[in-house]
Amino acid sequence: MRRTDADGAASVWMRAVCAALAIWAALPFAKLPALLRRIEAERAAEPVPEPLLKRRIDAANKLSRFPLFVIRNNCLKRSLLLYYTLLISGVRGVRIHIGVHKRDEKLDGHAWLTVGGDVFADTEEFVSKYRVIYSSGENGT
């Protein structure tokens, strides 16, 4: 019997690939606040079932490590893709943060997510050295 589940593996991967390509194409031309507004407009009204959420997060994580998508281990692209993934999955309290840290007289930047105030897909220890210069998303849970 043919599978017609709209949330099957192929659909999950296709959605992640399309989102990754859109982010990759938009980043050089769009200002970050405008790009985030476009992503935030896709927010789902209701949360998806936990197994589907896990499949979507897994696809986004695997795709964000793909060499053609992530150049120089790009945390911004990864964070944008995960931000989109969590929002379309109806997760509440998601925020994206951009921070800077001075290291050896050079400015280092990092992007990461929090969900309900907790660091997501990163470590508190790592992100705590960055001073947040920009955030977007929901404050609540």
Sequence-ordered SSE layout with sheet pairings:
Layout lengths: L8 H18 L5 H9 L9 H15 L10 H14 L5 E10 L2 E10 L2 E3 L3 H4 L3 E7 L4
Antiparallel strand pairs: 1-2, 1-4, 2-3
Helix pairs in contact: 1-3, 1-4, 3-4
What does this molecule look like?
A hairpin with a 2-residue loop joins β2 and β3. α1 packs across α4 and α3 runs antiparallel to α4. 21% of the residues are buried. The radius of gyration is 15 Å and the shape is globular. With 141 residues, the protein is α+β, with helices and mostly antiparallel strands. Strands 3-2-1-4 form a 4-stranded antiparallel β-sheet, covered by helices on one side.
Summed up, the helix count is 5
The side-by-side strand order for the widest beta sheet comes to 3-2-1-4
How many angstroms does the end-to-end distance come to?
A: 40 Å
Question: What structural category arises from helix and sheet content?
Answer: alpha+beta
Question: What does the overall shape look like?
Answer: globular
Average pLDDT reading? 89
Work out the number of β strands.
Answer: 4
Please report which band the strand proportion falls in: under 5%, 5-15%, 15-25%, 25-35%, 35-45% or over 45%.
15-25%
